[in-house]
Amino acid sequence: MRTSIRVDFQQNQAARLGGAAGAQMMQEAIASYRAALVASPSDKFPDQWYRTTHNLANALQTQGETTGGAEGAALLAQ
User: Fold this and answer.
1) Taking the complete model, does pTM exceed 0.85, yes or no?
2) Burial classification of residue 63, based on how many CB atoms lie within 10 Å of its CB (0-12 exposed, 13-18 middle, 19 or more buried)
């Protein structure tokens, strides 16, 4: 649970920071969410898996909106 809170904080900070540093921080948060989904399968940890999936979707949406253009559209499609 502590890792999830840390990643949630990292995602929020990345959204506030913006720019190249914010984009890099957001990429790291997204990678952490994806790793957490592998470590916490939905059949064993359904609540944690749901929360992590939801937060990953929010991070990808924020990244797609801030990136813009075709690259942003591709991120939003994930």
Assistant:
1) no
2) buried
Q: What is the DSSP letter of 76?
A: H
Angle at 38 between CA 76 and CA 55, to 5 degrees: 40
Cα–Cα distance between 50 and 20 in angstroms, integer? 29
- In the DSSP assignment, the letter for residue 43 is T
Stated as kind and residue range, the H or E segment containing 39 is helix 19-39
Q: How far apart, in whole angstroms, are the C-alpha atoms of residue 51 and residue 33?
A: 10
pLDDT digits (tens, 9 = 90+) for 35-60: 989 988 899 989 989 989 998 998 88
With beta carbons less than 8 A apart as the criterion, state whether 33 and 56 touch.
Answer: yes
Q: Does residue 26 contact residue 11 with C-beta atoms inside 8 Å?
A: yes
